[in-house]
Write a structure and sequence with these properties.
globular, Annexin V, domain 1, mainly alpha, single chain, 2 domains
Length: 212
Amino acid sequence: ISTRTANQLQDILAYYKQDFKSDLEKDIACGTTGGFRDLLLALIKGQREGYSGMIDYILIRQDSKALAGDTDAGGDAGHLEESEWVRILAQRSPEHLRRVFSWYQETTGISVEETMEKHFQGNFREAGLMLVSLLRNTPLYFASKLHSAIMEAGCDPRTAVRIMISRSETDLLSIRTEFKRCYGISLYSFIKAETHGEHQAALLGLCKAEDL
């Protein structure tokens, strides 16, 4: 749900209700707890801001300060408000957040990931770390997920297929570029080397072309 548009999220809510005869937001509220629940509910609302093309340096500093809370330089002490992390991570545009992450590290001396590892726990920490990775570089995030999924495609190719279908009309070309940069082999060649049979044919069809 982290990469879906507001309209896509509304469709997800509608299809969920149609298929499961239940309300997704209510099920999240009942089935999860704490900051993890709050993050999922915030994301499913689809209130992420679009990128205006303008750099708001005041807001960058405000958001960075809100994330830092009462922690000292180096992040060794103090209290962090999960609600502030949820609000900022779920509502700000990826372009804005990448600048917030950079300013945060410049002013605190540690990355937002290190802060989350140190101060948060459980599902909220894991979901937050995944979300930050996704927001930092979406194509790289999915390239990494595809690499892991294809290595396991002999057992279950559904994850790889789902990723490639969902990204086919948005940033699959960028994902292919990041894949080759990170792993030294094109996604197309990697699929040919690591899969076979119907799974290979399906994944190659989704990948569409070799990257020279």
